[in-house]
Amino acid sequence: MSSLLEDILNYNQAFVSEKLYEPFMTTQFPNKKLVILTCMDTRLKQLLPRAINLQKGDAIIIKNAGAVISHPFGSIMRSIIVAIYELGAQEVLVIGHHNCGMAKLEANSVLDKAKLRGIDQDTLEVLRYSGVNIDAWLKGFTEVEDSVKHSVDIVKNHPLLPSNIPIHGLIIDPKTGKLDTVINGYQEILA
Description:
Its EC number is 4.2.1.1. The chain is an alpha/beta fold.
């Protein structure tokens, strides 16, 4: 019986030897000068690029749970800053989605599952004692619109972000690909 990793590595060996990578070749610089923060939801993997007409190399896409920026100096914001200054992105899209797993997520649900998988209560207490607000860190959001606005606000108000970069907030329907605008970044710049 082979493992998932063995299957992946065997496929990869054939992928490389048969040069199946050639159709994916592009540069590290986004053609549309766009950086996107979106959710890691598997339904968006192919739907989102097709719904917004992205082709190979058009955008830098950053994914995390819920398209949430939880800290202005965390890895998500660092990636956006690098995309702008080092890779030439000139616009930012924050794209949340309806029916997101982060909606109404409560820390207790995650922590209970962690305990079932072997994380002991002492570890959780050490985290809390160390100043980690694990309940806030694992908390989801109530309304996707509010979450998108929050993430856009963090990007827009970051001290390292140029004032002329439009920061857009959108919500996609993971069934149909329909987009709804929450924040039009062009209007925000003109205001």
